[in-house]
Amino acid sequence: MILPALTEVASPLFRPIEYSLFPPLGLATLAGYLDPDDEVTLLDEHVERVDIEALDSPDLLVVQP
């Protein structure tokens, strides 16, 4: 599950500390509905850049708009 970075992240005025106080929980909520045996990886581009090519072949890829 991937949360792409907001366009505001490129702005020098973007404040990651404020953003981290209220992180979006949509993907985490969806992951909570999955079976405990399902392997889930949550990636947030606000935390680190996501390299799609480096991902193992997932059965399902979820991207939050």
Please describe what this structure looks like.
The protein is globular, with a radius of gyration of 13 Å. The chain has one domain (2-49). By secondary structure, it is of the alpha+beta class. It has helices at 16-21, 26-32, and strands at residues 2-3, 43-44. The longest helix has 7 residues, at 26-32. 20% of the residues lie in helices and 6% in strands. It has a two-stranded parallel ribbon with strand order 1-2.
Tally of helical segments: 2
CA-to-CA gap between the ends?
11 Å
Order of helices and strands: EHHE
Question: Strand pairing plus helix content: what structural class?
Answer: alpha+beta
Q: How many domains, in number, for the residues? A: 1
- Total strand segments: 2
Radius of gyration: 13 Å
In the sheet with the most strands, the strands line up as 1-2
Question: What portion of the residues fall into strands of 2 or more residues?
Answer: 5-15%
Mean pLDDT: 79
Give the overall shape.
globular
The largest sheet is:
2 strands, parallel
Helix content: 10-25%
Unreliably modeled segments: none
Chart the SSEs and their pairings:
Elements: E1 2-3, H1 16-21, H2 26-32, E2 43-44
Parallel strand pairs: 1-2
Summarize the structure.
The chain has 65 residues and is an alpha+beta fold.
Write a concise keyword list for the protein shown above.
alpha+beta; two-stranded parallel ribbon; single chain; 20% helix; globular; 65 residues
